[in-house]
Each structure stands twice: as structure tokens, then as C-alpha cells.
Specification:
Elements lengths: L7 E5 L6 E5 L3 H6 L1 E2 L9 H12 L5 E7 L2 E9 L15 E9 L8 H9 L9 E6 L6 H4 L3 H14 L3 E3 L4 H4 L5 E6 L5 H11 L7
Parallel strand pairs: 3-5, 6-7
Antiparallel strand pairs: 1-2, 2-4, 4-5, 5-6, 7-9, 8-9
Helix pairs in contact: 3-5
Protein name: GNAT family N-acetyltransferase
EC number: 2.3.1.-
GO molecular function, one term: acyltransferase activity
Length: 210
């Protein structure tokens, strides 16, 4: 599969300053931007900066950023699922995972996440993909936001809905391990029935739940 990508951008007016939401951005752009020190949900900021640079070089990958002047204050990544996860078992070349999304605390509440997802989906080539995200409550910043798991889950769902991702059932053990965890999916308009059926077989591997 040829992974075509078309750059889009928009300006988001926030109370703490205007942001440029843009992408997919190449590695060179990411290298030339500062990476905010508060982007540390997954690993220390300098390591995460290097991680998204490396992700951006993968053929299928996309990195969308929120940029305040020359500083990255938010990002979202899309790439093939981890080889150790069930979502990679079928080797579908048109299934990508929204692997990470993060926004610094200063800009939370400004709909930065929603806008990054909307810019992601401006690219018509996204209609060629099944896009998934696996949400686990232990990745959520409950302490920093002061929200409980259900309040955070509601906000997360609303944000994902802005990008066209909706909740879908699965029998994946890790997702089923807590009721707040969930699988969210966007099936592009040009995804064929064969791919949809293949994806359904990945979602449900216990035939009694299919």
C-alpha cells in the first residue's frame, strides 16, 4: 500500500496564545522545533521528542502537532500497531493506530486535542484506513486533572469523536480488564468489506463473543 499524505494546517485562537495545528509534519520540522518540557506523559520530554521524530520517518506514520511559535505544545501520532498487540496479527496494511496524544496543561481546555484530530482527518487519504485507538485508564492524567476515570473517559470519547472515532466492542483481554478502558475506531469511506471483516475478526477472537 502506498501511504500518501497531504499536509494541512489551521490556526487555533487560545487565551494563552494562538496555536498552529499542522501535519503530517516531517522529521526535519520536528527537529527544528523546541519540545515543551511538560510533554512527559509517556517518558521524559527529550526522549518523547526523539520518539516522535523517529515515528515520523516510518512510511505509514503521521505526526500532527500543535505549535506555539517554535515550541511544540501538543502532538498526536498515527502508526502501525505494536507487533506484540493483537491489532497487528493480521498484518493489515490499511490499519493504523492513534498511538499517542498529549497536550501540555497550559493549553488543556482549549480543544487542542480535538483540533489536532480534526486536522488529521482533513487529509482525504485517511479515508483509506481503519484507524484505531486503545484507551487505558492507567495512561490518563487523573491526578493532574482532578477527574475520576468516568469523567476523564467522557472527555476522551468526546475528543475522539471530533476525529470521527467511535466506541466499538472487543474481547481484547487488556481492554476488558477495566470497564473504563475502550477501543475507538474510525473506518474510512474507501475501506473495502474484506478489510472490515478482517478487522472484525481481530476485534473478536473468542468465537462465542463474535
Amino acid at each position: 500500500m502506498i501511504h500518501n499524505k497531504v499536509y494541512h494546517s489551521q490556526t487555533l485562537q487560545a487565551s494563552t496564545g494562538n496555536l498552529i495545528i499542522e501535519g503530517p509534519v516531517p522529521a526535519l520540522t520536528l527537529e527544528n522545533c523546541e519540545f515543551h518540557e511538560d510533554l512527559k506523559a509517556f517518558r521524559p520530554a527529550h526522549q518523547q521528542h526523539q520518539a516522535i521524530i523517529e515515528i515520523s520517518t516510518l512510511p505509514e506514520a503521521r505526526v500532527i502537532i500543535a505549535r506555539h511559535e517554535h515550541t511544540i505544545v501538543g502532538y498526536v501520532t498515527y502508526l502501525y500497531p505494536d507487533p506484540l498487540e493483537r491489532w497487528s496479527e493480521s498484518n493489515m496494511d490499511n490499519l493504523v493506530e492513534l498511538g499517542a496524544i498529549e497536550v501540555i496543561p497550559e493549553f488543556r481546555g482549549c480543544h487542542v486535542g480535538q483540533n489536532m484530530l480534526q486536522v488529521s482527518m482533513m487529509d482525504d487519504y485517511m479515508e483509506d484506513y481503519v484507524i484505531i485507538t486503545t484507551e487505558y485508564y492507567w495512561h490518563w492524567d487523573l491526578k493532574g486533572t482532578g477527574l475520576n476515570v468516568w469523567e476523564y473517559r467522557k472527555i476522551m470519547e468526546k475528543m475522539m469523536n471530533a476525529g470521527g472515532l467511535i466506541w466499538m466492542a472487543t474481547d481484547d483481554p487488556e481492554i476488558c480488564s477495566h470497564p473504563a478502558n475502550c477501543l475507538m475506531v474510525r473506518i474510512g469511506k474507501r475501506v473495502n468489506q474484506q478489510s472490515i471483516e478482517m478487522f472484525d475478526r481481530i476485534r473478536f477472537q473468542n468465537r462465542f463473543m463474535y
